[in-house]
Design a protein that fits this description.
This protein is an alpha/beta fold. The protein is built from 11 helices and 10 strands. The structure holds adenosine-5'-triphosphate and magnesium ion.
Length: 285
């Protein structure tokens, strides 16, 4: 049985009022269970595209369908349980008097029973380490906590697909690690993930597909391994592959594979070249 993709965009063009095209002829499919990264320079149209996926914005031309239905014909409630969008700026999302209320709002809005709303809220608070701030106004929390509140509030609606718009932007290293493992966990549980990011290293670990946007247009849609091998395309968008990939590419004449994605892969390949000397690459992620 052919299932509808979660998101299908066909020849989508979008312009903000009195502005030039922000999206130019974007066509793509995002299927259930995929983990997709969307990358591109500032102003490429990543947020504008993400907002088409849950009906926050409607195409000026073309069509976006969620689970086979045109977003212009779906109500926000129907869309919210299919596709959840976590805003790039958490302060554009946060509005409630307490963290608890912030997270309970979505499930309540879906029409769930109060016990179910309470259970989902408690679960989301626990999952994102927010129990201790449940009664605090989210607006006064530190930036990393506000990001987690924004994530938890969307997660609590249990959408099939989560669109995360720069979820690690502005976070310190520890918080980036926490968000990374939370996202990996959500994907492992079967959620479809669309991760918008400037962090090219994040693309190397987790996403199985990367879409490169440039000036509102899809410049590349490939696996990270393939995309990082297309340096010329990345450079058009002002991006470069992760450092470890570039190092392997530079060392390719010495026998290293040029499509290495992570330090672990690099070490294993290097150890393989020197295995006669008894070196091993075990234990490196
Ligand atoms: N509300 C708006 N009104 C008019 N133009 C806008 C608006 N929001 C975005 N734009 C323009 O649309 C284009 C795409 O912007 P968008 O925010 O989607 O890019 P982005 O890839 O998400 O950038 P960033 O990496 O900075 O978040 C840019 O030229 C931007 O200036
Ligand atoms: Mg953006």
């Amino acid at each position: 049985m052919a299932e509808h993709p979660i998101i299908a965009a066909d020849e989508v063009w979008f312009a903000y009022p009195e502005a030039d095209w922000a999206l130019r002829d974007v066509s793509l499919r995002i299927r259930a269970g995929e983990y997709v990264a969307i990358i591109g320079p500032n102003g490429a149209g990543k947020t504008t595209l993400a907002k088409q996926f849950n009906g926050l914005l409607l195409p000026t031309r073309g069509q976006v369908r969620v689970l086979g239905q045109d977003t212009s014909s779906l109500r926000p409630r129907e869309l919210a349980s299919a596709v959840g969008y976590v805003f790039q700026n958490p302060d554009h999302q946060i509005f409630a008097a307490t963290t608890w209320q912030e997270i309970a709002f979505g499930p309540r809005n879906l029409g769930l029973s109060e016990p179910e709303v309470r259970a989902r809220t408690a679960d989301a608070l626990a999952r994102f380490g927010l129990k201790k701030v449940a009664d605090a106004p989210p607006a006064v929390l530190g930036f990393a906590l506000r990001r987690k509140v924004a994530l938890a509030a969307v997660y609590a609606m249990r959408p099939q697909a989560l669109i995360l718009d720069e979820p690690t932007g502005g976070l310190d290293w520890d918080s980036v690690s926490e968000v990374k493992s939370a996202v990996a966990g959500l994907h492992a549980e079967g959620h479809t993930i669309v991760l918008i990011t400037h962090d090219i290293a994040l693309v190397a670990k987790g996403p199985e597909r990367v879409i490169l946007l440039h000036a509102g247009h899809v410049l590349l849609d490939a696996s990270p391994r393939e995309a990082f091998g297309r340096g010329e395309r990345l450079r058009i968008a002002g991006l470069v592959p992760p450092q470890i990939t570039r190092l392997a590419q530079r060392l390719a004449p010495c026998g290293l594979p040029a499509d290495v994605l992570t330090v672990g892969e690099f070490v294993r390949a290097y150890a393989g070249m020197h295995s006669t000397h008894g070196q091993g690459g075990g234990g490196v992620a």
